[in-house]
Amino acid sequence: MEWRFDGGAPIYTQIVDAVKLAIVSGELPPGARLQGVRELALEAGVNPNTMQRALAELEREGLVYTLRTAGRYVTDDEAAIKAARRELAGGYAETFLTAMGRLGMDKSDIIKLLEQDREV
Amino acid sequence: MAILECKGLSKSYGPVKALDGVSFTVGSGRIVGLLGPNGSGKTTLIKLANGLLTPSSGELLINGQRPGVETKKVVSYLPERSCLPEWMSAWQLMDFYGDFYQDFDRSAAEAMLTRLSIDPRARLKHLSKGNREKVQLIMVMARKAQIYLLDEPIGGVDPAARDFILSTIISNYNPTASVVISTHLIADVERVLDDVIFISQGKVVLAAPADQLREQQGKSVDQIFREVFRC
After folding, report:
1. Residue A85 domain-assigned?
2. Distance (Å, rounded) from C-alpha B18 to C-alpha B98?
3. How far is Cα of residue B195 from the mean position of the Cα atoms in its chain?
4. Domains and CATH numbers, chain B
5. Which of A78-82, B112-116, B227-231 comes out lowest in average pLDDT?
6. Which residue in B30, B171, B193 is closest to A42 by CB distance?
């Protein structure tokens, strides 16, 4: 996985989003085993406590689960993955709509644009 | 439990107050950034923690004890400037550290030297400045200490070496040990910090978990620092 962090959002929420994206996109398929906290922290260049916090959050949201001795795995629960996809898509859509609004585009302009109408 | 605790700590050099009533604690398992502009008191604080200076008033405790022989067993200190004899090689330094510190892990030091392609037989004076700094950091990080006090560990090295230093700090991480990093190069370290302490003119102006600051202010620690210390 590639890790990039920016701006003001807490690092752990950025990690949560990056792992979610990897799960939703299939880069981390259902049932895949995650590396240990320390390895992941090293790879991302972040504090292990921060990585731990992000993984706990993903666990709370039902996207990963822990087997006591065997490590952490991506969920097999299709519904949970679908919900995460919807949530991420909603976030991207909001960013998109905010930017479009700033450009002065209204709803019909945006729809035309999305339908590849170059006349907008 | 607090590994490091300061209570109303002050240090004056003649009429100059280098530290003025500083109070904070560092818990176990935390990586803490001690951040402040030049001359804010960072090095004074770290020297006090190592018993190289004594407080003018107030108190600094490590594991509940004043700095001394017992605390030096558990504190691994990287001074701001090179403190190692230049005629020694890394090999000799490992003997030296092994003699001095019971918690020195020689195989860890050797592995780090190999990873950085530093010849352990070369005398320090024949190494580049950057490599000398790396050797010193390796000696400090190869101890299994309870607290690491790193005074400007990334100041004089290139960006690749900075990444190595930060990854060394993360990979040596042990859930009960704490790390205090003093620096003004915040953008480089903020990803690894649990907590930040901003000091200015000898006083603590802000102390909080790094992610909490980012969340509340919607800015990176680096941006917050630039605003707090705008010249």
Report:
1. yes
2. 34
3. 14
4. 2-74+147-228 (3.40.50.300), 84-144 (no CATH)
5. B227-231
6. B171
Q: Kindly determine whether residue A45 and residue B167, on different chains, have CB atoms separated by under 8 Å.
A: yes
CA dihedral (A8, A10, A16, A20) in degrees, to 10, reads -10
Residue A2 resides in a domain: no
A23: buried, middle or exposed (CB in 10 Å: 19+, 13-18, 0-12)? buried
The CA dihedral of B58, B63, B69, B72, to the nearest 10 degrees, is -100
| Chain A to chain B Cβ contacts (< 8 Å) | 60
Q: Tell me, what CATH number does A37's domain have?
A: 1.10.10.10
Task: Name the domain count of chain A.
Answer: 1
Q: Which domain holds residue A43?
A: 11-114
User: Domain for residue A120, yes or no?
Assistant: no
Task: Answer whether residue A51 shows pLDDT above 90.
Answer: yes
| CA distance linking residue B60 with residue B80, whole number of Å | 20
Question: Tokens 């990963």 label which residue?
Answer: A64
The helix/strand/coil state of B13 is: strand
User: What is the reported pLDDT for B81?
Assistant: 84
Tens digit of each residue's pLDDT (9 = 90 or more) over B67-126: 999 999 999 999 988 888 999 999 999 999 999 999 999 999 999 999 889 999 999 999
Which tokens hold the place of A118? 């170059």
Q: Scanning the structure block, which residue is given the tokens 């205090």? A: B180
Amino acid, single-letter form, for residue B14:
G
Task: Pick from A15, A49, A57 the residue to mutate for testing the B interface (most B CBs within 10 Å).
Answer: A49
**B39 secondary structure, DSSP code:** T
b/e sequence B201-231, b meaning 16+ C-beta within 10 Å? ebbbeebbbbbebbeeeebbbebbbeeeeee
| Alpha-carbon gap, residue B69 to B87, rounded angstroms | 27
Residue A19 lies in a domain: yes
